[in-house]
Amino acid sequence: MTNSSKPGAFPNVPPPPGGKVASSYSRFIPREELGDFAAWSPDSLNDEDDAPQQAQGPSTPAADAAQSQAQNAAARQAGYHDGYRDGLVALDSFKQSFATQMSAQLGQLLHNFGTQIDALEQQMAQGVAQAAVMLARRVVRGELQTRPEHVAEVAQQAVNAVLLSARHIRVMVHPDDLALVAAGAAEALQARGARLLPAAELERGDCLIESDLGQIDARIASRWRQAAAVLGSELPWADDDTQAAP
Cα(36)–Cα(112) distance, rounded to whole angstroms? Predict the structure, then answer.
């Protein structure tokens, strides 16, 4: 307790050897007594920021490999999800594009099919009409040969069609039909004062009437052309392949 009574002395600190007490206490501290203490320097502030990282200890190759594998696995998983999503989007787009393309192709196919059907129906209708006209021509020809007296009816109808004011009426028929017309249309000829004349340039069944007001063409070819036109046909009355037909 003697040190506490002297001015400038540190309490409870033994004096240095020799018994002299210095005004300021200084003592060399061995390194063994410093322990974890170290000399301070201005760079110590930066070292303190890195202290937590240094405290974690150095990384090992095994830890780095594990971390790399984990990152690769995460990247592969993310890539798989992104690829799967993009694949679904691409598939849906392809489905829509394919459906649109197929709809357009089917629509065009149906349109073309309908057009072909319409054309086929028209061809069939024309074919049927043509066959009907050819059959009718064959029937008329046969009727004229088996019943030539029909020319008298034709001549009578033609004479009655002449205007009442017409004069100088002449009825011309084929020479072989002259007697038939004279017998079958005698009343009509006498009523109009018409003369019956043979004309070798006409065919059997033809009748041609002339007057001062004009001409009435009752030839078979002319009448046939008018009848065929009603059926939409232009088939002539006479042609090379039917001349010998009955």
Answer: 98
CATH of domain 143-242: 3.30.2320.30
What one-letter code names the amino acid at 187? E
Beta-strand pair 207-211/214-217: antiparallel
The two structure tokens encoding residue 235: 């088939």
Task: Pick the more confident residue, 135 or 197.
Answer: 197
Average pLDDT of the residues in 47-61: 55
Nearest 5°: phi and psi at 160?
Answer: -65, -20
- Contact criterion met (CB below 8 Å) for 203 and 146: no
pTM equals 0.47
Among 182, 229, 227, 222, residue whose Cα is nearest residue 202: 222
pLDDT tens figures, 207-238: 999 999 899 999 988 888 888 888 778 888 87
Catalogue the long-range contacts made by 215-221 (C-beta closer than 8 Å, 24 or more residues apart): 216/158, 216/161, 216/162, 218/154, 218/155, 218/157, 218/158, 220/140, 220/144
Query: Residue 216 is inside which H or E element, if any?
Result: strand 214-217
Q: Mind listing the pLDDT tens digit for each residue in 89-141?
A: 888 888 888 888 888 888 888 788 788 888 877 777 777 777 777 877 888 77
**Is the separation of the CB atoms in 246 and 138 below 8 Å?**
yes
Structure token digits, residue 112: 């073309």
